[in-house]
Amino acid sequence: MKENREAIIQLINATIGYGDLTVVNHVDMVVYQGETKVILGPSGVGKSTILKAILGLIKPTTGEIRIHRENIVPYQERELVRIRSQMAMVFQHGALFDSMTVGENVSYRLRELEMTTPDKIDQRVDEVLNFVGLRGARKLKPAQLSGGMRKRVAIARGLAPDPEVFLFDEPTVGLDPINHFNIEQLMLKLKKTQRATMLIVTHDVESALRLADSIVILHEGQFIFDGTPTALKENQDMRVKAFLDPEKFATARE
Amino acid sequence: MDRLKIGLVRTPLYYFYLFLCELGAIARFTGTALKSAILPPYRRSITRRQMDAIGVGSLPIVTLTGLFMGLVLALQSIVELRNIGATAYIGRAIGTTVIRELGPVLSSMMVAARAGSAISAELASMTIGEQIDALRAEGSDPVEKLVEPRLIACLIMMPVLTLICDMVAFIGGWLVACTVIQISSFFYWDSVLEVLTPAFVWGGAIKALAFGFVIGVVSCYSGMKTSFGSSGVGEATTRAVVISSISILALDFLITKIFIVTWW
Ligand SMILES: Nc1ncnc2c1ncn2[C@@H]1O[C@H](COP(=O)(O)OP(=O)(O)O)[C@@H](O)[C@H]1O
Ligand SMILES: [Mg+2]
């Protein structure tokens, strides 16, 4: 069935790193149209690095990264801008522009690419801030927001231009339970109402199982699992089990 | 290239190779920044805000620098000129030194310390907070958005600040000249104006422009090349000030040499 769906993001034999440091080594991955895919893995394993490569912020040293079947690896910045305009990235800590208000942050891409009229932009900002439950925050500066609010503004900024693809970097990590719940609900809502293609990076297993249509696990530069949440629970690979339930694994080894 | 790198690891040649790579990176950065500054679109409102921050913000410190420079220079000149019985030439002595050398050099060192450090700290914290990545992800060019307005502001404000610094230094010199050796005000200013020839004034202005360019490029580059971690901002700031200051002194030597050969 999957084979009939269009592949939106493809990593083909991709090796990605920084200078002499190789972070992920010859990996393959596909995200299909309308799918929510989660990349699971411990901190520092290279999850953010993969997202940055998909955006073309860093270049892989081998292999291809295809967005809508276009290999973006040889692309110059100008062509990458076109590719990026189909995607929204929600950075780990929000990465809001400190010098701008919440409203200016949210409307940034709409204003820059002159996608529509100022009136419509205003309306859209209200709409998406409403969607993330931050109706009154428009005039605030990022410095005045809590961590959870920053992340929600970042989601609103991603949402505003109505992109086809969402990349989330650790959307719920480090939040209090209430914000954790809120943001997860928000993503479920996105999944239902926008039918967006989403690639979510996290080390939160529970959250991944709730959100994902399909999951990959990154371990020492390789994907050691690629499949559905159900398949993940039944997987017998020791490394996978160790990641899912470190406590049990630790006692079993003793 | 990789094999070359591996073969050379930890030999002096390897560090020389790294140094060349860094120089290449700075040259490329300078190229893109210049191109962006020269070609439209121009970010007028951001540039104006940066001119305010860099120019108006550095005004007090540059004024103070000019004042004390003028005072000290006058005192020192008097000691020397007395020996040869030429205290009447104090205006000339101060005029040439300030306009050709000390004005541009000292005021740009002050701007490097105050505005250059602020620029690199701001860009470094944006780099660490992934705001630069976010800017690119949102489809903007960080060089055009962040570097260009700061570079243009440095280029415009440095000559202006230098001019102000020079003026204040002349006034400082005048205060000392009037009180210590009771030279007439008219005579002092007349001899100062005498050395304000186009060649000297242009020389000072070109130095200021060049130093402003150095401050802009070095501070922006240092901020955007920040390594991650909490010490990143501090390191970027220190690096920006040290490299700008040394580059200013070295460039000063070079420009002086060129002017002496060609014009002065
Ligand atoms: N800009 C960078 N320069 C050099 N190394 C980096 C950079 N960003 C991340 N790394 C390194 O790459 C590895 C993977 O980092 P990252 O992708 O951020 O991991 P994750 O998102 O899974 O926590 C880490 O070892 C990290 O130290
Ligand atoms: Mg990460």
UniProtKB/TrEMBL annotation, chain A:
ABC transporter domain location: 9-245
InterPro entries (alphabetical): AAA+_ATPase (IPR003593), ABC_transporter-like_ATP-bd (IPR003439), ABC_transporter-like_CS (IPR017871), P-loop_NTPase (IPR027417)
SUPFAM superfamilies membership: P-loop containing nucleoside triphosphate hydrolases
Keyword Transferase in annotation: no
SMART domains per UniProt: AAA (SM00382)
Keywords: ATP-binding, Nucleotide-binding, Transport
Family matches, as Pfam families: ABC_tran
Any one GO molecular function term: ATP hydrolysis activity
Name this protein carries in UniProt: ABC transporter ATP-binding protein
From TrEMBL, chain B:
GO cellular component: ATP-binding cassette (ABC) transporter complex
Keyword presence, Transmembrane helix: yes
Single Gene Ontology MF annotation: phospholipid transporter activity
Keyword Transmembrane helix listed: yes
Transmembrane segments: 12-34, 54-75, 160-188, 200-221, 241-263
Entry superkingdom: Bacteria
Keywords, sorted A to Z: Membrane, Transmembrane, Transmembrane helix, Transport
Pfam families linked to this entry: MlaE
Location(s) in or outside the cell: Membrane
Membrane topology: Multi-pass membrane protein
Family membership: Belongs to the MlaE permease family.
Protein name per Swiss-Prot or TrEMBL: ABC transporter permease
